[in-house]
Amino acid sequence: MVVTTEEAWAPEQSPAAPTVQVNRERCAGCQECIIRCPTGALHLDPAAWICAADSSLCVGCRQCERVCPYGAITVEGQLAVPAPQSFTPAHTHPLLMDRCEVHGGIESWGAAVREAERCLACPDPTCVRGCPAHNDIPAFIRAVRDRDLERAHAILRETTVMPDICSRVCDRSTQCEGACSLKLAGGEPVAIGLLERFVTDHAPVPPLLPVADDGAGLDVAIVGAGPAGISAAWELRSHGARVTLLEKDAQALGVLRWGIPDFSLPPDVARRPLDALLAAGVELETGVRITADDIPALTRDHDAVILAHGASLPLRLRVPGADLAGVEDATTFLVRAKAALAEGTPLPDVYAGTRVLVVGAGNTAMDVARSVQRLGGHATAVDWMDERFARVRPDELEEARREGIRVRFLTSVDHLEGEDGRVTAAWLVPTRQRKAGARPLVVKGRSERMAVDLVVVAMGYRVDPAVAAQAGTPLPVPAAPPAVIPDRRWLATGLMSPAGRPTGELAMGRELYLERARTPVGERVWAAGDALSGPATVVAAMAQGRQAARSILAVRPQRPKAPVAVEAPIPVPVAAPALAYAEAQGTSQFSALGYSGACLLMLGVVFCVTIVGFALGVICLAGGCFLFVAEGARIGARRIVDRILDRPAAGAVAHTQLTNTTVRN
């Protein structure tokens, strides 16, 4: 459902219209601001060689203020852009056993075009840097503004294989929309996610089509059929490579299947990219659990291997009572809950009035709590972090609270207690956290008992160390040290300025892992997604999988070829011992006697020419002639014997052996 506002903005009539002030003493004429102004409100004064402003053209995006390296520009006033539209959840009916999609999309061209017109088409769009996949956001929004769905879809497909999925599950507030110039200026960002969904909801999803053949001849195995594996397979297959997806579960899709409820991501939408891969000839093997011992065999049977197995091991709750019955991890619960909601039958341990404690308040925890509400239970989520620093999508947190879920931050579990081996209560303690990177501290002396029937641990996941150990590099790869300084291109966008620093730092971190995904972690082994970076977002995993695949296409690794069996030479009668030297020399029939005679003849000629050794030369010539006569007699006698015995001569034997061996190679 879309609610729009029809009032038009008239910047020149606004009492708080934006104005631009340039400090002439500070301006150095570097023109950083001029090339980034989306409205042409800034220009260079050629006489003074400093920036000059026309406030009547300014929309107040403050890009010039953020990128100026000397702090010479100040912008005051409100944003002079069309007012944002209001988008509300789609359903209002009771939640019990409901699995309908909550988020409503843009339903009309009029609403889509009005939202697209809010985009400033920035010359250096920070939204693209905020998107892990680097979608060309201004270009696809421009296509929407032109009412060209086919072109918009084609632009998105250049950088993402699942825009229909990402538009539903991405944390847009810390990615594309968090990096929007309007957001950095203190206003409401362009609804990039909803515009992306509008395109994919109304334009048919195209099949996987070949774009090049530079991958022909490559055979790649991908461990894991989640977002990273699917993206890598798509890139490789579209370039002609042979791809085999290896999935440990009975069904593919990974977190897209078991980790995101149907009310956030409908199953038919989640399966679109996988169905396209299978139709294009990608092989899928399910129920295949790859261990560290299996990786050498994979590299032997394939040209390259991509580890995209994700971070599937849930973090455990390490408090007394965590081993009681009724305490389970989020994955187990989500799988059970999803099946129950799909079948329309309640779970035996979650029914009307069931009290469920969810440990954690991230996105997965919200999925658990919202599933509990739909099964008839009452969910309370606790997290020891401050809400300001919590790792949860703001829109999902707001929706969870609207659905009746109680979310308590700065609260931790001290211990659990139970009766007859089953959990009955949780003891909670308050915490405090001063900074985003600081570990929360427990406030001692205060505790609270909460009666519970079920405890679901949703504190996050980690990479399976058994598989990571064989990669050659410890996985996940540690984040870059704080000493890494962004290059000038990042600094000049303004994304790393105080206004955009949290989003900019997240974007820079994702950029470092995108670069890392291009580098092998072992001999012909790459890693991507949560296996490389640890738990992250769907779009970040997808982008890393694509980069790993592109690296393989560029490197074109080849597995060692199997040794070729060489046929043994045809057996030939061995020559007589007296002819061993001749056999070793191949086709030569001369023995040492003949070579000695030749040497004496050469010395005799040299001595005779020099006159000084004439007498010695005559003696050498005579000796050489004698040895040659003796060698000739020996060879002649040998040939007579060979003819009598009907066998080939020694030189012929050696030549036959050489020829037979060459032919069989």
Question: What can you see in these coordinates?
Answer:
With 665 residues, the protein is α/β, with parallel strands linked by helices. The protein starts with a strand and ends with a helix. The longest helix has 32 residues, at 614-645. Strands 9-8-7-10-22 form a 5-stranded parallel beta sheet, sandwiched between helices. The chain has a 5-stranded parallel beta sheet with strand order 12-20-13-14-15. Strands 16, 17, 18 and 19 form a 4-stranded antiparallel beta sheet that branches. It contains 26 helices and 22 strands. Helix content is 38%, strand content 14%.
Brief rundown of the structure:
By secondary structure, the chain is α/β, with parallel strands linked by helices.
Helix content: 25-40%
Shape: extended
Count of DSSP-assigned helices: 26
Rg over CA atoms: 38 Å
Give the terminus-to-terminus CA distance.
Answer: 74 Å
- Give the class from helix and strand content and strand pairing: alpha/beta
SS strand fraction: 5-15%
Spans of at least 5 consecutive residues with low confidence: 1-14, 570-590, 647-665
Number of strands: 22
- What summary fits the major beta sheet? 5 strands, parallel
Q: What key phrases describe this protein's structure?
A:
alpha/beta, disordered C terminus
